[in-house]
Amino acid sequence: MSRSGHDTGVPELEPEVFDSAIVPIAMTAGDEHLLVYYNDAFRVLFGPRRLGVPARDAFDEPAAAPFITMLNEVFRGHIARQVTSPRTTDGSAPGAPGVRHFVYSCSPVVSRYGPGVLAVAIDTTAQVTAAEHAQWLSEQRHQALQRYEALMSAVSQIVWLMQPTGEIQELVGGFEEFTGIPWRPVIDQDWLSAVHPHDRGRLMHTWRDAAGGDPSTFVCTFRMRTAAGLHRHVQSRAVPIVRDGVTVEWIGTTADVEDQWRNRLREKLLAKVATVIAASDVPQAFAAVTDAVVPELTDACGVFLLSPAGGPGSGGDLTVTRIASSAREGLPPLPPLSHRPASVGPITRQVIASGRPRLFTFPAGEPPDGVLPDLSAAWLREARATSITVVPVEIDTAVVAFAVAAACADSPPPGPADLQMLGEVLREVRDPLRQAMELQRTRHTALTLQRALLTPTPRVPGAEIAAHYQPASRTAEIGGDWYDSLLLPDGSVTLTIGDIAGHDLEAATSMSQLRSMLRVIAFDRSRLNTPAESLVRLDRVAEGLDIAPLVTAVHARLEPLPGGGWHAAWSNAGHPPPLLLSAAGTPQFLEGGGPDLPLCVAPWMARTTWHHELRPGETLLLYTDGLIEVPGTDLSEGMAALAAHAEQARRQGVSLATLCARLLAAAADRRDDAAVIGFRPVPRGRVRAEHPA
Fold first, then answer.
1. Does the N-terminal peptide bond of residue 215 adopt cis geometry, omega within 30 degrees of 0?
2. Do domains 15-154 and 454-681 have the same CATH topology?
3. Of 74, 268, 453, 462, which is most buried, counting CB atoms within 10 Å of its CB?
4. How many CB atoms lie within 10 A of CB 629?
5. Are 539 and 561 in contact (CB under 8 A)?
6. Where does the pLDDT of residue 632 fall: very low under 50, low under 70, confident under 90, or very high at 90 and above?
7. First CA to last CA across the chain, in angstroms?
């Protein structure tokens, strides 16, 4: 829809035609914007300016900088620009009439001086200083500006004149060339057939709003089908021409704005998918992608993650899991996401093997077999889909997932530009997706290892033991906490709780090594170690083997006493103190003289063993800091809250297993993993109601 004086036969603009114009007009030429012309009205408003010099020299006052910038944009982009909010001169130019207010527009033009820019200004001083006079002046100059804008916009826009009855006249042609449809003198359904089906309703609604009541400026961006069968974005702008209070006609322009629209859309989409960087897991990351492209690029989008054992090179069936999907309003509800893998057919396998996108078009509601799982294919039939585009998602040259974009109902298939942008969005998120997928694999491995090592607590005559572990609610926080309990041959019991610095697979691996070594040390009856001596031996081995950077732990040994009580001895290596729930009375933390240093800090230092006798009905709880640490609060507040929760559960008479589960439930939204193990003396021979794993 672009035109120029050199390639369409349009005569070069003679600037002298504006000599007697009532609006200020100036003209520049070339990329240096040489000032080659201005009329008397321009001299009156801005004062005399030097001709034949660059605009930056002719308009050297600071306030003229935006004008110079606009000259560059209009000359290089070949797109008319307007400044509709009032601008003010500083009145410093020689011969200028002082401070004045004005608005202006710039349009590309070709004159005998070659390509350049035509600037049209309107003096709005009267509007600013006197409202009554401004109304008359605005009307007069607005009509003049309309006539000149029609002339200036001829180089790049279709210009049309429409009567209130719907009769339309093309002043500057281009409609048939752009759409391949002959120009029709009346706006009707045939004329609207070139408008994208999804934009027709909005176009008509915007027009009715502008034309109804007090007529106002009409501006609408919509898609039109081109002669090549593709849709491009155009923008129509029109203003009413009012005489004696009655709208007698509308004058408007229609310009191709596809490039500008796509640039803005690209920025918008990339801003949306930037949230993928903050995503903590793979489904959340892909959900950000589908939400970004619907409905701007497609009616619906789903992402299918390939099962680890079902890659394109495997011999078995290819299975996938739909982990994210979005659809525009007006379509049937999407089926709920499911973690159950589903099979896909040979067509999808070919697309994944090739690593190249593929577009499938088909009659409405009749998607081909062998592309998507049955549940997704059923939704496509219900939504009357007309096309689907399968786009493989590659990370490190391997296809790990594929996105499916669907056009539904009366939507046309996506064009090459749409497919290119969809691929660009998916490429943009590869790095954060790689991180999220690697984090998910690491988390799964660490949790598998950790749960394998957190064995069930032993059955102990005369005591009840229960323990629970809970990974953090955030993906990155895993792997450091553990508990253990061991029934020794002499009838005594060990309880251990620990926390290793770090929240990753390395921390989980270190935890497994320390747990195993402490078990061996505690079980070795050839040398009866106190809890403090056991931790000293563990500290020296851990230091020598460089197993972990920092470890906190409480290690306790409990021996049965006559009468049903138990003697508890423990040593604390930089860990939160044990919590004692008495049968009657307030809870207390067994802090002794304070904890010793954590392990792996000073293995040569001696450690302290503390002692306490547990009576029947009392409960000893060992826990990790995930139960008491709350960001932004003091640790003592978390300890007080833990004691209150534990005491409330004790008063309700719940089992030890239930008590431990409730304490972890209260910390479900914490950023750290958490573990707790409890010991409660019971009469010998009593059968426990619960034996948790």
1. no
2. no
3. 74
4. 17
5. no
6. confident
7. 73
CA 496 – CA 18 distance, rounded (Å): 94
**Helix, strand or coil for residue 146?**
helix
- Tokens representing 628? 């008491």
Residue predicted with more confidence, 414 or 27? 27
Across 180-210, b (16+ Cβ under 10 Å) vs e yields eeebeeebeeebeebbbebbbeebeebbeeb
Fold classification of 454-681 (topology level): Phosphatase 2c; domain 1 (3.60.40)
Average pLDDT rounded to a whole number, residues 555-574:
93
Q: Does 309 have pLDDT greater than 60?
A: no
CB distance 669 to 473 below 8 Å: yes
- How do strand 610-614 and strand 619-623 relate by DSSP bridges? unpaired
* Tokens, residue 687: 């059968």
Decide: helix, strand or coil at residue 635.
Answer: helix
Residue with tokens 């007006």: 330
Residue 89 CA: distances (Å) to CA of 63, 72, 290, 432: 7, 21, 50, 51
Would you say domain 266-441 falls under CATH 3.40.50.1970?
no
The overall average pLDDT reported for the chain is 82
Burial of 78 (0-12, 13-18, 19+ CB in 10 A): middle
Contacting residues for 428 by C-beta, under 8 A, at least 6 apart: 270, 273
Average pLDDT over residues 282-305: 85
The full DSSP string for 27-51 is EEETTTTEEEEE-HHHHHHH----T
Q: Which residues of 33-53 are buried (b: 16+ CB within 10 A; e: fewer)?
A: bbbbbbbebbbebbbebeeee
Q: Are 556 and 494 in contact (CB under 8 A)?
A: yes
Mean pLDDT within 268-292: 73
pLDDT at 471: 75
Cβ neighbours of residue 32 under 8 Å, at least 6 residues apart? 54
Q: Using the 8-state DSSP alphabet, how is residue 321 labeled?
A: E
Q: Which residues pair with 88 in a beta bridge?
A: 101
586 torsion bin: left (phi>0), alpha (psi -120 to 50), beta (else):
beta
Q: Which of 362, 368, 430 is nearest to 394 (CA)?
A: 430
pLDDT of 77-100, one tens digit each? 888 888 878 788 877 777 778 888
Strand order in the sheet with 588-589: 463-470, 674-681, 619-623, 579-581, 588-589
Q: Which residue has the higher pLDDT, 613 or 505?
A: 613
Question: For residue 444, how many other CB atoms are within 10 A of its CB?
Answer: 12
Beta carbons of 403 and 351 less than 8 angstroms apart:
no
Separation CA 325–CA 404 (nearest Å): 9
Q: How far is 666 from 624, CA to CA, in rounded Å?
A: 14
- What pLDDT is stored for residue 478 in this prediction? 53
When the candidates are 3.90.960.10, 1.10.238.10, 3.40.640.10, 3.30.450.20, the CATH number that belongs to 15-154 is 3.30.450.20
Among the ranges given (24-38, 305-319, 405-419, 619-633), the one the predictor scored with the smallest mean pLDDT: 305-319
232 three-state secondary structure: strand
CA dist., res. 320 & res. 315, Å (int)? 15
**Rounded to whole angstroms, how far apart are CA atoms 464 and 473?**
29
State the average pLDDT over residues 465-477. 70
The ranges assigned to domains in the chain are 15-154, 158-256, 266-441, 454-681
- CATH fold for domain 158-256: Beta-Lactamase (3.30.450)
The model's pLDDT over 96-142, given as tens digits with 9 standing for 90+, comes to 788 888 889 999 999 999 999 999 998 888 776 765 464 555 566 66
CB 425 within 8 A of CB 292: yes
Rounded to an integer, what distance in angstroms lies between the CA atom of residue 165 and that of residue 449? Answer: 77
